[in-house]
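Listing 4. Sequential folding, example run.
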Amino acid sequence: VEAAATPPPAAPLEQQGGGAGHGASVSNTINLTLSPPSHSTVAAMAAAPPKVHVSFSTDDALTMMQIQDAITKSGCECTVVHTAQTDGWFEEWSRKAEQAEYLIVLWLPGYKKRFSPALLMEGRKIMELHARGARLFIYDETMKPSEVRANLLDGAVVTGPKVQWMNFISSQVCRAHAEASSASYLAPLKLSSYVSKFDEEGARDPNEIADYKLAELRDIFGMTGTDARKLRKWLDELFDEDEPIEVIRPPAPERFFCGLEGCPKCDLISLKLANKNLQMNLDERLDVVMHCTEIGEKSASKAEGKDVVMVVGNTGCGKSTLVNVLHGCNMVEKKIDMGDNVVKLAWLVDNNGDNKAELMKIGHNNQSMTFIPDVKTSDETFTYADCPGFLDNRGAEINISNAVNIKTMIHRARTCRVVVMLNYHSLKIDRGRGQRELVQILTDLFGSADQLLESKASILLGISCVPKNVDGRRVDFKDVRSEVMSGCTGMGDGMAQCLKVLSEEDRLFVLHPADAGNSSWSLREEIVKRIQNLELLTEPGEIFRTVLTVEDERSLRELVSEMAARVTVELGDKEYPAVARGMAQMEGLLLIDNIVVERLVGDVKGRVNTFIDSLHHRGVCDMVSDKFDEALAVANELNVMGEALAEVSGIKNAAECAKELRGLVEQTRKQRDELAAAMKEVDALGKDKAALDTKLELMEQERAKQERDKATMLEKQEALVEAHQAEQQALEARSAEEMERLKVKLETASNEEKKVLQKQIETIEAETKAKLASAEEKQRVAVAQSEGVIDKLNEQLQERERAEREAKEELEAMKRKEADAVLLAAIKEADFVSLTTAIEQAKKVKGVDTAKAEAVLALLTALKVAADKKDAGLLASAIEAAIAGGLNAENEQELLDVIAALKAASDNKKDAGLLASAIRAAKAKDVNTVAEQQLLDVLEALKAAVNKKDADLLASAIAQAKEDGVDTETEQQVLEVVKALRSAFVSADISKLETAINTARLLEVTVTDEAALLRDLVALKSAVSERSLSKLRSAIPNVDDRGIDTKEEKKLLQGLEAQEVERERERKSKCSKCSHKFCGSKFTHTDPGNPNPCNSSDNWPASTSRRKCGDWSGAWCCRCDRD
């Protein structure tokens, strides 16, 4: 119950009314949000033209006339009626504003220059109504009146610089508070002459003089008796003694929620809570969200392992009041002063005596006081979680924080029961909007209508703020239940079924805070018992989902997108601690079950991991290129990154990558040093090898000479032996011949002769023996001498062979070192051909180990094969092995990136632009893209069909896309929408057309023609409803041009035109001034004295100037124009 208990603060008399704005101008820096008229809007337009209420300054009266004309031309009704601020003007202005669908503010220079308390009151009322769903246009100097008409026809929700205007109003509110004066209550009473005296005496607030008697008012303030009685009467009405007012000043913004005095983040939260439209940068938005969730985590810990009763509902539905009632608090109804001279009735906890103190803080200003789930345990009943108001609009950052905090609390609870509160008055507005919001909240909270119905035994629905009597009739439980059930009309089957289940008698109660309701309403003990009988929801964290409005989800996606973009920039700038903070903040939002957020966070993590891989790869490439300092710098960078991101899940361990890279650098540096030393040694060995080759050549020549000398000596030895043998044989032959001669003589000789012959024979034998012995000795000596020479030659040859063998071994060692160095150089170069040649040459050198070179060659071969095959998996494995082997695979990595991008774009099967870009990059690398090109053709055909809105073409494209494995769910929805649009277009059914247009806009399908038809049909229906001839004449041709049958409307138009002709004929037959029916009698101008001119005779003298009654096309009347 809210009423203006006092006249509002007055301002200098100033004309007040209503205004409009349109934001289509390019020069106007605003966000133009268009939406089709709702069902209720269409119905209202059919029944009566939408009302438009305007706030403007008298300085802008001329512009106001133009705006009023634009409003009329749009088919709406402008409710500007005020010309001065008389008593009660603001109540009348507010009443008309509350009836209006559109609110317009002429925020022009005159408005700003002459901004008055009256305009401030209007501005605050407009902000309140806009928060409740009224559409708001802010018209500034950059706009034209024609834009107002266009926006009204388009059904715009918000246009113009709304945020700037709201900030302007907020600043004026603060200024008005600072400049408080007694004029706020004296001026409306027309007692402004006493303002200075009252201010001087400190009576700036009526509470200061609440107890003043008439005499005191006269004596202290110098008031006349009449004025004093007038003021005293007003004070008596304000401070009714029978029902005292508890003065509640607007509380200072809540501060230091975290308990840390002077916390700047809490200050920022306070500012956001005070002004939901507060403009903040990304850091401030993140601070609000993250600090709110940190505080929410502390509150959620109170629900750890508890059986929680979760109380949910919109702000103002009585959640906190219910908890206090169930806790056993005594509730009393009192008048409270809300400030700005607004008094309302509200239920408060009676803290007098031994009554229980308030368990949950109750808000009275239609703003949620439960900033986070307030978890409290009652000493008698349950652990309650008073949740922030669902569908609150306290700014996206606060709403997102509330969603996260509720989900955190639910995860902590052991079990859960749900009590849903609904304000009775919300059942009465906007054709069951309260019921629709109730079901929507619960289906969002439970994830689906099926899950809601499955959990019905754990849900209780309470109705608050129910009047005991309406129009003299008592409101019983069955009346309330019937009112709740009435919301099923117009709902879908699923939502209606949910509402029916929630409205069952054993699941519904009516609350009266003081247990003083009608007999059929529920008492506290009964409600407690029914809550106790509810089934416990086990594992509530798996059941409940995050509840966000569409706008909040959009803001959440924008926030996470901005965070992702910032992390990407910070990653490029190597601000790794900032990256870690951003990643931690994004991870904190994962508690919200939002697939887009999860995808964005996953994408950022993927980018970070890719960055780590690319950084590691760059370090390896630097290492392979012998840029060891650069590689170690990369390792240090990876280490810094790893330390910063150590606590972020799903991120590669960059510190381990750094450690691995350092190891590779040290190993490679050692290998490079060894290679350099080997190559240096090879260079030094070149000369030694040449000298050794020369030495070996000389040694071979000397050995050949010695072998020749040996052969000669052997030949000489053999010749000497043969000569001695021949000499010996000759001697033996001569001896034998002499002996034979003597023996012949001996046979014929005498004895004496025989004796002589015998002696001769003995002498010859002895000489022969002696000669033979001498010859043998000579031969022996010669042979001995020869063998001595040969032995010496053999010794020389053996020494030569040993020296030559040692030289050859030394040469082989040199060759091995050279081969090893060549292999190392080939490995470093990592050239397939060079390494193959080096291995082949090395194998010709005995003792050279080619295993490592062959392993590197195998890696290069694998890279080459994988690159030739363009196989991403094979190439990735080959690159990984190559990098592990210390090889530079930069070119192959580029190819892999291209192939991976092509595969990702192909697997995506949705983004034609991404796929086209990937195909271009792949073609530049000679990758086969035939299959991907075919897919691109299908996607482009699908996109073209969607753009053309051709159902047959789209159906064909969808069929082809399905064959290629493309997900066509969205396109199928578009196809259904296209069919629905065509059907609604042909049938000219406003309801179907509006539904189809809404769905089409959600799917981002252009509906220009359909929206134009809808506007024309609504205009036609409105014209028919109003039986407006001018509107029918304008609307029928527009609809006719679209091929819609308008026979009935044309018949109506013909009838109205006939009536108009008759009215015109009737109008022309009467005087417009005195309504005298023209009689045709003649009357003389110069004879004003004729008392009865219409009955006068026509027999006037010919010279007399006479006129016939009705002459000059009815411009002359014989009764009133005779003079």
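-- end of first protein; second protein begins --
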Amino acid sequence: EGEDYNTLEHQLAKCAIENKIVELVLGASLHREVVHRSIPFIEFLALMCNRDVPVESGEATQPGPNAYCLQKSHLLLAWKTCTSKADVAVSDEIYHLLVSILPSLPDSLAIPLLQVVQESLEDTKQDLVFEVAEFCAALASHTPSELKDPNLSLLSEEVRAVVLNLLWGVLTHPEASSLKPYEILKRYVANELGIEPFGRRHREKFLKACTQTLSSNARQQQNVGADEILALRMVKLTQFVLNACPREQAEEIITADKGSLASLIFNELTAYLSRRKDDITMSPSQRKTSNLSSSESLLLNDMSPLPERLGILRYVYGISEGIRLSTNQLQHLWALCSIPSDREELMVFVASASTGASGARGALSDQQDSMQVEGPQNSNDGLTAAFSNDVRSSAFVDLMCSEKVDWGVLGERAYRSFQSMFKRLGQTQGAPTKAALNALWRICLTAGNEIVASQSMKDLLSVYSAMANTSRNQNSAWSAGPPNPSTDRMLTDEEDNDFGKRVFDCLVQVKKGLDAGDVSSERSAERCLRILNAAVGQDGSTGRSVTTSAIASLNKLVPQPTLANVVGLLPHGMRGQAGYRRIGIMVKRTSQNISQNQDQSTNHRQGSTKRFFIDVHPLETLASVKTKVSQECQCRVGSVKPISVSGRLTGSSRGASGDSTQMSLNIQPDDSTVDQLGIVHGCEMVFLIQDRQAQTSATAQPKPHIQKTSVLDLNKMFSDNRAGFANKMFETLLSVLEALPWRVEGSRVVNGSKTHKLVWDLLLAMPTNKEVVEKVHVAAGLEFDGSNKDKTIEDVVMGDSSVDQWSSLLDKQNYQRSVYVLQTIDACLQPAPELLSSLHKQTRSELEEVMSTDALAFRKGFIGSGGFDAVVSFFSTFGNEQKQRRRRMGDAAALRILKCCLFGNSRFVSTPENSESGTLDVMGSRLLESLSSVEGLLRSLTAMVVGDEGISTSTISDVLKFLRLLFFSPKTTETFVSLPDRMAEQFLITLLLWEGDPEVTRSATIASAKIRESMHDLILQIALLARHALPWLIGAL
């Protein structure tokens, strides 16, 4: 019988044990390579433990079965080596060795080893958490493949239970968050917890441990002595254990004891917020004397624990519909989340928790793109809504829509949540609530985040558009059915749906704030004006434009409209020739089209391509442009075929210079307008003149335009005469314009110009104020009714009343209003006949004749009543405190008026071709002789160029034309060169080096070259100017 224990394996094992080879291998004095190469040998000794009969204790008796095998003392020695911190590399090899032999060890050896490791973890005298974690990581990651699948594990259930307890001890250790293999251990534990019925027992055990810790933390409201890192980890581990549960068990746990676990997690969250609030409000000296560690304080002030806790709260309350958050709970959280970052996180939570997995997309309108917001997003997959519809409505109306919410400090994620809740509320109640609409207005006007402001404006217009469209079709606010009687108190009424009145009220409040010096009112003014500009399509963001609305209004006119009917519908900025856009034209002729009667030299000089410039109006049709080209080229209109246009505007800001985008005009209808084609200042159009008639007949009547669906019918609002609303809107805008501050550093405007421009953009988009038009005509001694045909300048007698009227209209104390009056005068003097091009041919001809008659009569009346002198006085007498950029618009309008009075309107009267050189008509000659003092006029003309680097090339051209006329008098030239502050010298040098607009286009380059050439010629023409110019030029060089 003894021979059974005398095999080669027994002899080898006996040799190893007696010679203490295991002690040498597992001791701390050897190299890691020795340990690595000894792994098969140690595994052999481990197998010898069960070679004969199962070992009942940790030590075998000698001699007898299993007398020589791996023993408990060997394993303890190995672990002692690992914890000695002598050699990390040796420790790593031993971890691998122990994990490798663990399946081969009997429970009597495996369990004591694991218990020793567990004791090391709990040893407060030695810091061995790192070593325990490394051993557990090796167990979880580097074990044989059968250990990774718990169903195939060779470990006994008792050993697996001890391993699981060990790993849970590591996960819950106070220092576990800093451990690198933390997630690896979690995955291993998750696999083990998923095995039934083994996992169920441990899930319940671990969950009980979590609830005990949560209960303790929930009772701790003060920020002294709390381990916030561990507290957060225990909340996350609670969700971790619930995730490991089957859905049925999770629901059972959550709903047990009337949802005690869910309430516990909520209470733990409120306790954390209370501790955090105390820490935020604690002074540095108080924090220094408190027991709070620096790491705990940092964590309290860190924002990440809150969204993580809210995400867990969302998960817990979304597992079962039997447990819901109440209104009181949400209000309690809202009160605790008082700082902006907390408030924003809570809003995200409320929006996410208000719906289940199939919730609606977070946007107010399906047509609007919701904002792209970076950051973690809560997933609602498989979760139900965390509260009822009534609680959701209360949370949105009473919390998110509260007037106490400061949107000046909230960001994109908060507004995205508001969007989502707003839409869901509209879907369930059939209409936006009054509180929601008020909140949306506040967001637009006060949001500190520019992205939020822009998106909220789009949403606001979308909401009003939806309400207006549905109101027209169904006489209700939204189409989702009648409102819920229980929420009827919140629904919008007809007054709330009136966009114009709401904007007007906002502007009134803005004006009061500006008068009181409230800085925030400046931002509110800018936002309110942006909303209005977007609503009328002035910024192009709504897919429509002012031109589209104007054309649609013209198409709705009665069959035989008067000129007053027509211009009363047009935007103020499009009534006159000031709205012209100068573009380049390139005409290509076919070889057969060149006249056969021309001699060879003429033919060579003209060639087959011709270039020139024309002025086009935004409302002018393509057919009208073709007519201008045919007149310039002296050919039939039917022979002119548009080919393409380059330099078009494809952005959202109308009136700016274009880019290089090119568009084919072959398929564009003749009734397409300049603005609809994207043609702006500096564009170039290419035409082809061919022998055969173009397919589109020149006599074909334009097809009626079909207006695109607009956001709102703002034209109707601006023309609303109920209780003088249109005039009140106009007066309010002007008062806001006058109240807006200008902040200037040196000669540069650093603030205010953007908001001023928004007001002017809106004023130019509105129809001209009727009261201003009437006052201008009355001051000129005329009637705005077409009855001025036979009046001459002698019929208008200038009296004191006329002078007083012009002084009142052009009041230097109300500069912005005076600029508007100047623009109105300019439009009356120089109306644009092209704006009639979309009308029927006969109607257009009749109205053009009336327009020409009225323009000529107005010029006579304006000059005869003293209007010319009033404009000269207004233009010439501003002091140096008036910054030139502020005067740019007014100076340009005044200059156009003076030029028209002197030279006449070339659109309606025949003027000599050399008028550019200064030839005047009879009326202009009289006016020039009547100028008594020109020094103020010269100073203003010069300052326009010297003091404003943004002046347009066309305005400079008008300045040079005016100066050329004035310089015919030597005395005037002497006055010019003697202007103070070297103004004349700066004027000459500036224009001789003029580069023009920053947009480099062919037309801009040609226009700039023409300015330099005109200045050069003017110097050579005026001898006195040439004598002074030479030293100025030498000084400039």
